[in-house]
Structures are given as C-alpha cells and as structure tokens.
Amino acid sequence: MIYRHDQAHDYYILDDARKPQPVSVTEWASWLKANTATCLLGDERIGRRRVRTVFHGHDPDVRLNRTLTPRLWSTLFYASPDDLLSTSGHTTEATASQFHARLVAVLSGPQS
Predict the structure, then answer these.
(1) Mean pLDDT taken over the chain
(2) pTM for this structure?
C-alpha cells in the first residue's frame, strides 16, 4: 500500500479483512483499547529474551520524514525483561510476521 504525501494519515485501525483503514485519533484509541488481542501478532520468550510484534496503527514518521508507506507494525526485541534492545517497523502484516518468525528462529538456534 503506497500513500501520497497529501494522503498521509496519522492513525489506522484494522478492518475485518485485517487491512489498515485511516481513522481519527479518538476512533483509533477506542479501537486499540477494545482490540488488544487483535493487535498482537506474536509474543515469544526465549530464555530471558523476548520478541513481541504488534500492530500499533500509528507512524509519526509518515509526516515527519515524508515516508511513503506507514510502518504500522513493530517488532520489539528485549534482551531481558526490562531491557528493550531494538525495534523494527514494518509496512505490512506479512512482513511483520515474517520478521518476527525469523528473529525467533535465530534466537532459538544454537547458542555460542
């Protein structure tokens, strides 16, 4: 999904087909509160490490950096329960799910 700069929106929710739809901030906040489980794509713990991928429906960089496609999903990698090591933004649910699975596979592999 490619957006023109003048069509950039700040907030999105997922429709019944899991496609992002632009909404107001009020609609977004209400939807997120009511759809917490829908937003979670994966949450894996590998020892003390954790990989969590979610739909958050907001990408401030679309307007700030004029990105063409909003990154509405994020994968968060925690080195320990209180130590967020890195995040990665994704433009589609498919790429978010694939990245999540690859990161979990790498972290679950043989330890050196």
Answers:
(1) 85
(2) 0.81
